[in-house]
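User: Could you check the structure of this?
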Amino acid sequence: MTASPFDLSGKVAIITGGNGGIGLGMARGLARAGASVVIAGRNEAKSKSAAAEIEQLGVKALPLNVDVADKAAVIGMVDATLSAFGRLDILINNAGINIRNPADTLDLDDWHKVIDTNLTSAFLCAQAVYPTMKKAGGGKIINVGSMMSIFGAGFLPAYAASKGGIVQFTKAIASSWAQDNIQANAILPGWIDTELTRRGRVQIPTLHETVLARTPAKRWGNPDDLAGTAVFLSSPASDFLTGISIPVDGGYSAQG
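Assistant: Sure, the predicted structure tokens are below.
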């Protein structure tokens, strides 16, 4: 019998920010498809809990305490993955933070903090996995953007800049590394019900109603809504697909 093009059995994935929210939703999806998962995050307790949940799905999981904006730490993350599993097939750059302030009052340190965590980390992680993937004959890189990769928001200048940069960075490495059989694509989540967006709804009282009014699906997404797209972009089913960005947003971006 021919294996499913979505089968990830035997594959190993690193997911940054994989210990909660969207990252954990994608981790569950990859695990159900057969992949072993490295959960990279800065909250050690959350990462251990997430890894234990993933192992309940019948695959191996490794929690790692990593600052993904630190080059040495990122290189250590890749080394630890190879030491534990002997291979690395998939990287999902999902780690991210958000600081809400308009550009006229945003502190420079906060600007750098958001850009470094959301965008520079994707560069560092992709650069770190590249030699291993090239040597192995291929790999998959998924960068997680946002609706702010498409739309503007006055209260999110640093976040929007970082997520817009994710799309262009994805295109750049897709073009550069296609010859090495490495596919790089981006997922652009819509409004997903996570700890991060719950804080946003407290800070912006009209956000909940605004999102529902614009979203054709008439609901917020949940982290598991990202699982199918993550599996697709991690699997042989997407071997001739690179450099694209896929909104997973209940139709939000289709509204113009």
